[in-house]
Design goal:
By secondary structure, the chain is mainly α. The chain is 41% helix and 0% strand. It has a domain at 96-130. The longest helix is centred in the C-terminal third of the chain and has 18 residues, at 113-130.
């Protein structure tokens, strides 16, 4: 932007005279921002809390931690990649014991989880037919 364009820019109160906007706003010159400054944030070392102190107070008052619990099952997080042709996903909720058992059996048999589910459903159907 050159100097001519700057001088042609329209101000906030370009349609009012200087004394009119001061009268309108109670004698305050709104265009003079020289006294304006941002307050600097003070960090008072006496008022900052250490993490150990906060944890101690929280523990004494039985405040629950929001940290994630460590899962006891190491095989749950391990990757299993099989090319099986199965392309549909089934998301279910189960107890930790059920999930651990499911992964343990799949690991023992060295089969994909989908295959274990198929075998389990087939066994269940066969059992129901006998009843």
């Amino acid at each position: 932007m050159n100097e001519n364009q700057r001088s042609e820019r329209v101000g906030l109160f370009s349609n009012l005279e200087d004394n009119q906007d001061q009268d309108r706003l109670g004698g305050i010159d709104v265009m003079d921002l020289n006294d304006f400054s941002v307050k600097k944030r003070r960090r008072d070392p006496e008022n900052t809390f250490k993490k150990e102190v906060i944890n101690k107070i929280a523990e004494e008052n039985n405040f629950p931690s929001r940290e994630a619990k460590v899962q006891s099952v190491s095989s749950i997080g391990s990757q299993r990649r099989y090319r099986t042709g199965r392309s549909y996903q089934l998301n279910i909720k189960a107890t930790l014991e059920t999930v651990e058992k499911f992964y343990r059996i799949a690991d023992m048999e060295n089969i994909p989880l989908g295959k274990l589910l198929e075998q389990s459903l087939n066994a269940y159907e066969n059992q129901m037919k006998k009843i």
